[in-house]
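I hope you will forgive my troubling you with a question about protein structure. You will find the record immediately after this paragraph.
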Amino acid sequence: MHKSLILLLLLASSVQQVLAHSETPQPAASVLKEQTAWGIAGESGQVTRSIALRMSDAMRFTPDQLQIKRGETVRLIVHNDGRMLHEFVLGTEKALNEHAALMLRFPGMQHDEPYMTHVAPGQSSEILWTFNNAGEFDFACLIAGHYQAGMRGKVRVTN
């Protein structure tokens, strides 16, 4: 009976994570274009190239290093090869660390920004992003435990 209770609790936790992360794409009109240190939401007509990324249950992104030119608008196509929900979030190391700490404390926290996407198992999603500031930025999966297991990468934006 003890094993059944543990299994039930794990299942409930998984369902809560899935329900807390919207998988429904937002209409383009609802995208809030807010300047961040790592750039701003892009427009489809400005895209200069597409970059495919893959996520796995080994808590890794492939590739985990991106090179972008300042001012470039890219379509980041993120595919989840795993069997669990993952997310892709752009940011600075500081912003991602702060957000990851909140996700550990409040795993059911809902959030939806143009620099993040939640991807169900076997599905793909995309982010249109203009990298208008040079520097080194980060991306990660901030679902509780994933970031801590090393699910992160780097974006180098050059002049």
Q: What stands out?
A: The radius of gyration is 16 Å.
